[in-house]
Every structure is written in C-alpha cells, then in structure tokens.
Amino acid sequence: MASEVPFALTPFPQEAQAKIKAKFLGFSNGLVDVGGRHAMPAHYGLFANKYFNYKFQADDVLVMTFPRSGTTWTQEIVWTMRNQLDLDTAAEVPLDTRVPFLELDSIIPVHIRPPSGDAEGFWRLQPATNPLAKDVYLDQVDALASPRTIKTHLPFSLLSPDLVNSCKVVYVARNPKDVSVSFYHQQRLVKAAEYVGSFHEYIVDFWCQDHLLRAPYWSHLAEGWARRHHPNVLFLFYEDMKEDFLRELGRLNSFLGTGLTESQLQTVARHASFSGMKSRGATNPTAALQEAGSFKKGEAEFIRKGTTGDWTNFFTPDLEEKFQEWMEKWQPASREIPFKYHIAKEM
Could you tell me which residues are beta bridge partners of residue 152? Predict the structure, then answer.
C-alpha cells in the first residue's frame, strides 16, 4: 500500500515568496517548503507521493547530490563503469537518456513544455487532463533497461525509507562555497529558474536564507553523511575526486562490483576528464538545451569550470562573513563534514 510523504508541503512566507518570484522568473508559482528539508516548485506536490513510494530495483544505482556537486561527472563515470566501457554509446546517446533524472517532471515549469527529444513520445502517450501532472520523465526511468543508473537531487528523506536496503546509492558532496557559485550561474542560465539578480543578492537574500530551489543545503548533506557507513552507500567528496581521481575510481570499482582493471580505470579517467566531458554533446548538452530554448545563448556552458576554489573569484569579505554566519547556523553538520575549499593539484 502506498504511503504519503510524511512532511507538509508549505508555501514560502509571503515576503520570501515575493522575492523569489521577482528574481527567479522561472518560478512564477513560487516554491514550497517540504518539511524544512527541501524546497521545490509548487507543482512538486503532484509527484511527491510517487517519488516517496518509488520502488527501486536491486541492481539500480542512484547517483544522489545537491545540485552542482559533480552530478553530471559522476553520472558519466558510474554509467561507463557499469556498461563495460561502452564509449561509443557514451559518445552518441545523451547522458540524460542513459541516466535519467528521477524527479525532472516536478522541476520543469509549464512554459517550457511540451518536451522535445526522447521525452516527447512519453508525453504523447499520457492524457492531457493536467499537463503539469504528466510524469513523462518518470516513465523514462521505468522504461530504462536493467541495470539502471538514475540521477536525483532529492534527499534521502523524500524517497522510500527502504531505499538503502533496496539498491546502491553513490552520494557526492562538494564544498558549499563552490556549489553556491556554480548554482548561481546555472540558475541564471536555465529557463526553468531564470535568475535575474546579482551574485551578492543571490548569496545574501536566497542562499544564506535557505530560500532557493533545493535548499537547505546542509540538511541534504547531513542526510547523506549520516548514511555514509551503510554498505549500500558510497559517500564521495568532489574535491577528493579532483585531487586523486584514480583512487576514487578504485573506491567506486569496489563499491559497484564492476571488477575493472587498472588499465580500464585509466580509460574511464581519460573518458571522464573535464576536457573530454565538455567536448562531447552527450555530456555537455549546452547546444541542445539552447536549441530547445531552455538555456540562455551566448554565455557560459552547462559544464562550466569544474574547479575547486573558484569561489575566491566571487566572494567579497562581506559575503564571506554572511556565509560564515549561515554555516554557524547549521552546526553541527557544517562543522562535522570535512570539506576542502582549496586543493593543491587537480587531476
């Protein structure tokens, strides 16, 4: 029997909602707070119970992150390792087809529909009683052949309580300063959010108030960190992957049971290098997103810099002070999780 999400979906307070609507043009209906654990577009409520009751298969691998934490990179790595280094398919088939996004239906606003590409067929199969309620992207997950690799930004608490006993989860965490910079750029560029304010406003009025899509960051991270010792969970740090990629690939190899040789892991490392990822349309969908009208033209790309420490180019002393106050508010999680904000040498 299906269960209901055990958290209330509450619209943000009126003043916060007005700011969100004014600065995030894609969120014309505002955001809802899901039990203080996650902020989502208003129509998330149409899908919340479906995600909470979703039955994962024993051979599924779920790539779970807070946005802009190395998600695309990890998706490509995990898919490649689990599919016998099928680099031809990896180069030809878009990543979001090979590793679908579980809750994308609840993110895409109505003004960006109907979808194009692979989702179009699923869209046409469903009755049009309420276009927002069509779970075409969830249909893509269901239609994926086993063994499935699936992406989500939802925290553990909004998925099945039995998740970690049902399949494997690769959780990737990235330091919050670099995440905030990367998320700012993404939310400026994607039409689903279309942020029109400054970086200073973004940090002070939204990030540090936990008044933005997917916030709060620290509660998401805390849920992953609390499960890091479970045998079906591998907790990775983005900075560790950048610092010693082959070492972290070895950890993934053991966790996934893929049995790849050292030579094969080196092939994965070359394939998933930043330059390689950015050069392939299958993993860097900037052109396709621009063609579909869902990504601004003439600015940055979907895959941006991928570096650690880029936050130093954006944070003023005033912003660092505000950020530190926000970090202190989220203790003990912000103190316990050992992030690196600089690394000496990247892969």
Answer: 64
Strands 233-237 and 149-152: unpaired
Cα–Cα nearest to 34, from 18, 19, 52: 52
CATH code for the domain defined by 54-336: 3.40.50.300
Q: Which residues contact 164 (CB under 8 A, 6 or more apart)?
A: 156, 227, 230, 232, 233
Mean predicted confidence (pLDDT) in 135-144: 88
Mean pLDDT across the chain, nearest whole number?
Answer: 88
Query: Looking at residue 129, what is its pLDDT?
Result: 47
- The neighbour count for residue 244, using CB atoms within 10 Å, is 15
List the catalytic residue out of 38, 43, 153, 211. Answer: 153
- Over residues 246-305, the pLDDT tens digits come to 999 999 999 999 999 999 999 999 999 887 787 675 665 555 454 544 554 555 554 556
Residue 153 among the catalytic residues: yes
**pTM for the predicted model, two decimal places:** 0.90
